Amino acid sequence: SSHLHAQAPNLDSVKQELYKINKRFDSSAYLGFDVHIRYFSDTAYGKYDYEEMTGKYILNEKNIWYKMGDLEYVQNDSFAYDIYHDEKTLVMTRDSISSKSSLFPLKEFVDSMLTWYAASYTISLRDEDDYRVIEFTTEDTLAPYRRFAIYYEPTTYYPDKFEMYFIEGNQIPSSVDYLE
Fold first, then answer.
1. Cα within 13 Å of Cα(55), Cβ side
2. What angle do CA 11, 157, 149 make, to 5 degrees?
3. Neighbouring C-alpha atoms within 13 Å toward the C-beta of 180
4. Phi, psi values for residue 63, rounded to 5°
């Protein structure tokens, strides 16, 4: 288990790993992975709202299916369907997602977040069970994510799981352990 901090050579090697994952992601005909999001928002009087969502994505050539919270999205070569289960609403459009990488915030993360926030993040690269994990953590309240982790197969670079923790407002409540 090695720790990489925001120093140029190590940061470059982490960027290379991320680009390989993104390339695998965008070039794969068939892919399935999980997403886990934890979201904290600061409300009045220092109270915090906490929301947690787990989602599943399945990509099959140009067909895409994902479910995140009460939203389900289905796309084939002709139509895209947004299904809002709580509202019992279905929206069908001819618009479709042109690139699989637009479903996945990795490219944006590498290009913008590391450019602006690299010094704020502690970056670790470790092996966990059968996966390699790249993890970005910070206490910087201005950074968009408090934690962003990617679990992937180290030999094929297939992504398995993404975890993102967002905090809106000043500080995360000290009584909540968000790095479980």
1. 20
2. 55
3. 8
4. -90, 135
Q: Tens digits of per-residue pLDDT, 109-149?
A: 666 666 777 778 888 888 888 999 988 888 887 777 788 88
50 torsion bin: left (phi>0), alpha (psi -120 to 50), beta (else): beta
Sheet holding 80-84, edge to edge: 2-4, 122-128, 131-137, 147-152, 159-168, 30-42, 48-60, 63-68, 71-75, 80-84, 89-93
Q: What is the pTM of this model?
A: 0.68
Alpha carbons 37 and 137: distance in angstroms, whole number? 14
In this structure, what token pair is assigned to residue 109? 């993360």
- Cα–Cα distance for residue pair 4/173, rounded to 1 Å: 27
